[in-house]
């Protein structure tokens, strides 16, 4: 199938597959934390999505190694595929923390961070969809990702501050601090992808 697609489109199609898969993972994470009626089952579904992401990343790297002509700099294609893979890894790691630590009930801050992760993934997908099109729209989406990362950072800081003020059980404090930081790192990875996309815009403007 990919042999029939022009070289420019091969990578763009795979990147779109990758971001669609990331959004699927982010939706599952949000659903898991919002409803929390079957966390183990939801975590398994997120792990399946993460495995699918690994396969797409592998396909991108294989195509990169076989292509003489690429639509973007080779290092940018490699860096973007790695950054997108990292987002999904952190979504998976976040869901695993809830199972590992036997969380009984997610906090409002965890739900808010899951919502921000989903919005960040959607903004990254919007930017990736513009590859090969109008690069100015990529910059707009990257600004949105940066704003969302700042918001996640604020929510995480305030949540941890409240933990130290109110949580008397040191074990619970350690657990929740790590959960909040892992969720926030997923938005950091979205920002990393946005930074690579912004650098692509500068190079190809």
TrEMBL record:
Gene3D superfamilies, alphabetized: Phosphate transport system protein phou homolog 2, domain 2
Coiled coil stretches, renumbered: none
Pfam families in alphabetical order: PhoU_div
PANTHER family on file: UPF0111 PROTEIN YKAA
Family the entry assigns: Belongs to the UPF0111 family.
Name the UniProt record assigns to this protein: Phosphate transport regulator
Organism this protein belongs to: Geobacter metallireducens (strain ATCC 53774 / DSM 7210 / GS-15)
């Amino acid at each position: 199938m990919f042999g029939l697609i022009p070289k420019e489109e091969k990578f763009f199609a795979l990147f779109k597959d990758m971001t669609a898969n990331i959004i699927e993972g982010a939706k599952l994470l949000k659903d898991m934390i919002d409803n929390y009626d079957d966390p183990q089952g939801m975590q398994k579904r997120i792990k399946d999505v993460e495995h699918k992401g690994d396969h797409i990343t592998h396909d991108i790297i294989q195509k990169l190694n076989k292509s003489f002509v690429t639509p973007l700099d080779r290092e940018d294609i490699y860096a973007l595929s790695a950054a997108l893979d990292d987002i999904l890894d952190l979504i998976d790691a976040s869901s695993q923390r809830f199972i590992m630590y036997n969380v009984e009930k997610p906090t409002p801050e965890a739900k808010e961070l899951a919502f921000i992760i989903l919005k960040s993934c959607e903004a990254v997908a919007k930017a990736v969809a513009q590859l090969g099109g109008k690069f100015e729209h990529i910059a707009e989406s990257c600004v949105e990702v940066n704003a969302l990362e700042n918001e996640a950072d604020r929510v995480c800081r305030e949540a941890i501050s409240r933990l130290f003020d109110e949580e008397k059980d040191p074990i619970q404090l350690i657990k929740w601090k790590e959960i909040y930081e892992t969720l926030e790192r997923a938005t950091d990875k979205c920002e990393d992808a946005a930074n690579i996309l912004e650098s692509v815009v500068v190079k190809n403007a």
